[in-house]
Amino acid sequence: PIGIGIEASFLRSKDRSQMGPLSLSGRMMVWTYRGFDVGMWGVASLNMLSHQEMKNSQLGRDVITAGLSVRKEMKHFYLENLIGYSLASKAKQKIGQIDYEHEYGGIVSAGVHPGFVIGKLHLGGFAEVYLADYYRVRGGVFNYDSGRYRIVAVGPEVSWVEDWFSV
């Protein structure tokens, strides 16, 4: 089986509107053994900011991520483990007359997604750890290097699953 996804975000406030990245994703099962599905996945989060908007954001960059997943689904419970890697990337920013370059190191991610199946409703959660190589900023006389750092994320997941699609 092959899955394809599209994701975009739009935020409107009183004084302005903002668009997030456009994410294109794909997923493919490559092997099944004793009820465990092993798959490959990839996501390209593409910057949708215009040149003018990028001047005001050091986060305006493309991010490419790929990884492996292992999923076990039973009648009323599922568990999925994910591991991934995001490629290093750069972004430029100009503040006044000074040009800054932001460098983002590669990121290794690992996550677990357990949940319960109630008919077509899946109720679960996730816990993920992201280990980034570095974050560097250079410009003018400013020079910053964060070194290695981590981000931990946890939260709920809810989905409705039909035979040929899920939301």
Could you give the topology of this structure?
Blueprint (H helix, E strand, L loop, with lengths): L1 E6 L2 E3 L4 E3 L2 E12 L2 E11 L4 H4 L8 E11 L3 E10 L2 E7 L2 E7 L2 E12 L2 E12 L2 E5 L2 E4 L3 E12 L7
Could you explain how this protein is built, in words?
The protein has 167 residues and is mainly beta. The chain has 1 helix and 14 strands, in the order βββββαβββββββββ. The chain has an 8-stranded antiparallel beta sheet, with no helix packed on it. A 4-stranded antiparallel beta sheet has the order 8-9-12-13, with no helix packed on it. The longest helix is centred in the N-terminal third of the chain and has 4 residues, at 51-54. The chain is elongated and about 60 Å long. The mean pLDDT is 89.
Strand content: over 45%
Number of helices: 1
Element-by-element helix/strand order: EEEEEHEEEEEEEEE
* Strand order across the largest sheet: 1-4-5-6-7-10-11-14
**Structural class determined from secondary elements:** mainly beta
* Tertiary shape: elongated
Share of helical residues: under 10%
Query: What radius of gyration results from the CA coordinates?
Result: 19 Å
Overall mean confidence score, pLDDT: 89
Head-to-tail CA distance between termini: 17 Å
Q: Regions with pLDDT < 50 over 5+ consecutive residues?
A: none
What is the tally of beta strands?
Answer: 14
For the sheet with most strands, the description reads: 8 strands, antiparallel
Brief sketch in words of this structure:
The chain is mainly β and 167 residues long. It has one helix spanning 51-54; strands at 2-7, 10-12, 17-19, 22-33, 36-46, 63-73, 77-86, 89-95, 98-104, 107-118, 121-132, 135-139, 142-145, 149-160. The model has no long low-confidence stretch (mean pLDDT 89).
